[in-house]
Design brief:
Shape: elongated
Number of helices: 14
Strand content: under 5%
Structural class: mainly alpha
Number of domains: 2
Order of helices and strands: HHHHHHHHHHEEHHHH
Radius of gyration: 25 Å
Mean pLDDT: 80
Number of strands: 2
Distance between the termini: 79 Å
Length: 335
């Protein structure tokens, strides 16, 4: 009796682990070829982490969410068919949810709460969680209405053998590649995040320059503000507060008359600001920084401190500045 109660739960949990094993294998396969930043104008064709997806120039939203949900749909469909055929469960939807939630434990659910995440990344993680749960729930509801047992393997013994061997082989292959991959550094995940962060900065700088460079030129001239410094701060704020969040902040300020940081420059205001209005205020905060030595980290951080005194903030802006120097002409920016 206890075995009959435990086995359906075990099958559901094993299904969730299979989903995670699939993503790990795909991720690691692509990481072997991911050594350089993604070209801003190229097309995404391989595995993308949330940070890589957010940093990417041309996002294929439908393809991305299909990639995240289809493996879950296939595995959950298999799980509920097994539960119906071999265990005659009354509510297969419950086991569909168990399998779905298990698949999220090591992936998107952790990303929502990690500290070193930009808000735009957190939103994608939340969207992933919601889409995956909706996918699993949909299949679960269908399984409560329709008999899906025909999809299940014909033999319970071969099922357990295949399920167990599939998990073992997947984990062994992953372990083998990680141990024997002598060509790459041991910090593959960290390297991928650095590449994604670089793409993030490059994309954001392109967008800001194309949309606001005339206003930035004008306000920096009026306030004797260092353009490179202002651009890098705007890049940081744009990454941390995507456009949709800025609209929400402006709406809150409008209706509740409270002081929030608003606009692309994230300056404090009790009224809604356009991005250009916030840039004008930001240039005023950074007044008389034009002659600041941008290669002196201490001097740069002191200038950033007038805008935001946080150590992490200034360090991140310095990192952004180094990337901007690498991919763009500082002389052209400062013209």
């Amino acid at each position: 009796m206890m075995t009959e109660n435990i086995m359906p739960v075990f099958i559901a949990i094993a299904g969730g682990f299979l989903v995670e094993a699939f993503f790990q294998l795909v991720k690691y396969k692509d990481s072997l070829n991911n050594k350089n930043p993604i070209i801003y104008t190229s097309s995404a064709v391989n595995y993308l982490s949330v940070r890589q997806f957010v940093s990417y120039g041309r996002r294929k939203w439908l393809s991305y969410f299909l990639f995240r949900t289809l493996p879950v749909a296939v595995i959950v469909l298999l799980v509920v068919s097994i539960e119906q055929r071999y265990f005659r469960v009354g509510e297969p939807c419950v086991y569909a949810l168990i399998s779905t939630i298990t698949s999220l434990i090591f992936r998107d659910s952790l990303g929502v709460f990690k500290k070193k995440k930009f808000i735009s990344e957190r939103l994608i993680y939340v969207a992933n969680v919601l889409f995956v749960i909706c996918t699993g729930s949909f299949i679960g509801v269908i399984s409560n209405i329709v008999d899906l047992s025909i999809i299940a393997p014909s033999s319970i013994n071969s099922l357990f053998d295949n399920l167990w061997s599939s998990m073992v082989v997947a984990m062994l292959v992953l372990l083998y590649f990680r141990i024997t991959n002598m060509g790459n550094s041991h910090d593959v995940a960290e390297n991928e995040n650095n590449i994604a962060f670089t793409n993030y900065v490059v994309r954001s700088f392109y967008d800001i320059y194309n949309n606001y460079h005339e206003s930035i030129d004008l306000y920096c001239k009026d306030e004797s503000c260092n353009k490179l410094l202002l651009y890098c701060i705007l890049v940081y704020e744009d990454m941390n507060r995507p456009r949709v969040i800025r609209k929400i902040e402006n709406a809150i300020v409008t209706f509740f008359k409270c002081e929030l940081t608003v606009g692309i420059a994230q300056v404090k205001s009790k009224k809604p600001l356009t991005d250009i209005e916030s840039i004008k205020i930001a240039a005023g905060i950074l007044r008389d920084t034009r002659d600041c030595d941008m290669y002196d980290t201490t001097e740069v951080k002191r200038a950033i401190g007038a805008y935001n005194s946080g150590e992490t903030y200034s360090q991140t802006v310095v990192e952004i500045m180094n990337i901007v120097r690498q991919y763009f002409s500082v002389e052209d920016i400062e013209k």
